[in-house]
């Protein structure tokens, strides 16, 4: 039997003009969904968004921006079916080198930006008794490599928040998914600008050389959301990391020791960065 056609959804994607957010916006629009892409700039970059997609300036750190977006969606669409909390920034650095201002900036976007999105739209979704919240965390939210403490902590926070909401909002007919991808090729490295110059090595090694494309990851996310999955692991690295940590903790700890030891050796040789 052919699958039952899915009615179009009304979707809001934060961080929607670059990388994974943009790929999600394009994939949703291609499926016939009504999409609002939101991001920091006053206007979307020329020619980036598909026809029919609305753009809105929304800094996820701003309560006023969230309230205005919610009002506009209520007025123009009468409700929302899918909220994708995707906006995020990179952060790296050893605990004693990365500055408190980096922690504050990372928490403000990666964790509190998601909290604000969930807080803003939950009353609407509860009234509807329907809707889906998709929080883009990271594999860093499940397995914690060294010299990324601010990023890891915020992403683990998003996982904890999502699991809480799964239990809290499920009874209201609201689906919650958390997405934990490993490295993929986007513009995320641009936002990594901290005090620890050793973090540059990780940026080069992992972020800039990532092979996975946002389009492939976006397609996997939407399949997971359609299937009603809570934890969406979009790649083999994620599945291996997740299950190794759960089922083979000593192996996981050993794997996590390797990059730490590499960095300690560089540090002992007196490389820059603190
Ligand atoms: N790239 C990776 O390897 C990777 C891996 C796992 C998870 N992620 C997560 O995926 C999400 C998307 O990142 P990406 O890799 O596509 O990076 P990206 O830099 O290409 O896109 C991030 C978008 O978020 C926007 N943004 C940043 N701060 C914002 C704010 N305060 N308000 C609104 N928008 C803001 C940026 O302008 C940008 O358009 C992030 O949450 C990131 O942590 C990325």
CATH class: Alpha Beta
Q: Could you describe the largest sheet, including whether it forms a barrel?
A: 7 strands, parallel
CATH superfamily, please? NAD(P)-binding Rossmann-like Domain
Write down the CATH topology: Rossmann fold
User: How many beta-strand runs?
Assistant: 7
Which spans have pLDDT < 50 for at least 5 consecutive residues?
A: none
Helix content: 40-55%
- Give a list of the ligands: nicotinamide-adenine-dinucleotide
Average of per-residue pLDDT values? 92
Could you tell me the radius of gyration in angstroms?
A: 19 Å
CATH architecture: 3-Layer(aba) Sandwich
Count of helical stretches: 8
Query: How far apart, in Å, are the first and last alpha carbons?
Result: 63 Å
Count of domains? 1
What global shape is seen?
Answer: globular
Give the spatial strand order of the biggest sheet.
3-2-1-4-5-6-7
Task: State which percent range the strand residues make up.
Answer: 5-15%
Order of helices and strands: EHEEHEHEHEHHEHH
Describe this structure in words.
- This protein has helices at 19-30, 63-77, 100-128, 149-169, 199-207, 214-226, 236-247, 249-268, and strands at residues 10-14, 34-39, 54-57, 82-85, 132-136, 175-179, 231-232.
- The model has no long low-confidence stretch (mean pLDDT 92).
- The longest helix is centred in the middle third of the chain and has 29 residues, at 100-128.
- Helix 2 packs parallel to helix 3 (100-128) and helix 7 (236-247) crosses helix 8 (249-268).
- By secondary structure, the chain is of the alpha/beta class.
- The chain starts with 9 loop residues before the first strand and ends in a 6-residue tail after the last helix.
- The radius of gyration is 19 Å and the shape is globular.
- A 7-stranded parallel β-sheet has the order 3-2-1-4-5-6-7, sandwiched between helices.
- It has one domain (10-268): Rossmann fold (3-Layer(aba) Sandwich), CATH 3.40.50.
- Helix 1 (19-30) links the parallel strand 1 (10-14) and strand 2.
- The structure holds nicotinamide-adenine-dinucleotide.
- Belongs to the short-chain dehydrogenases/reductases (SDR) family.
- GO terms for molecular function: oxidoreductase activity.
- InterPro entries: NAD(P)-bd_dom_sf (IPR036291), SDR_fam (IPR002347).
């Amino acid at each position: 039997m052919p699958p039952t056609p899915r009615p179009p959804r009304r979707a809001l994607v934060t961080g929607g003009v670059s990388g994974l957010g943009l790929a999600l916006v394009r994939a949703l629009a291609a499926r016939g969904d009504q999409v609002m892409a939101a991001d920091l700039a006053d206007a979307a970059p020329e020619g980036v968004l598909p026809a029919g997609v609305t753009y809105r300036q929304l800094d996820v750190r701003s309560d006023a921006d969230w309230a205005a977006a919610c009002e506009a969606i209520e007025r123009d669409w009468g409700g929302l079916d899918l909220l994708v909390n995707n906006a995020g920034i990179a952060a790296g650095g050893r605990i004693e080198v990365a500055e408190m201002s980096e922690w504050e900036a990372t928490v403000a976007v990666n964790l509190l930006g998601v909290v604000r999105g969930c807080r803003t739209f939950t009353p609407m979704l509860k009234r509807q008794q329907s809707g889906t919240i998709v929080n883009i965390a990271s594999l860093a939210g499940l397995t914690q490599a060294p010299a990324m403490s601010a990023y890891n902590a915020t992403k683990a926070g998003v996982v904890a928040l999502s699991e809480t909401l799964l239990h809290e909002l499920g009874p209201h007919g609201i689906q919650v998914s958390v997405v934990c991808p490993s490295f993929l090729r986007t513009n995320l490295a641009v936002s990594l600008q901290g005090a620890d110059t050793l973090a540059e090595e990780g940026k080069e090694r992992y972020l800039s050389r990532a092979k996975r494309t946002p389009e492939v990851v976006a397609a996997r996310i939407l399949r997971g959301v359609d299937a009603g999955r809570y934890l969406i692991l979009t790649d083999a690295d994620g599945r291996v990391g997740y299950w190794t940590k759960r089922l083979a903790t000593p192996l996981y700890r050993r794997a996590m020791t390797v990059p730490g030891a590499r960095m300690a050796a560089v540090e002992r040789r007196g490389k820059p960065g603190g």
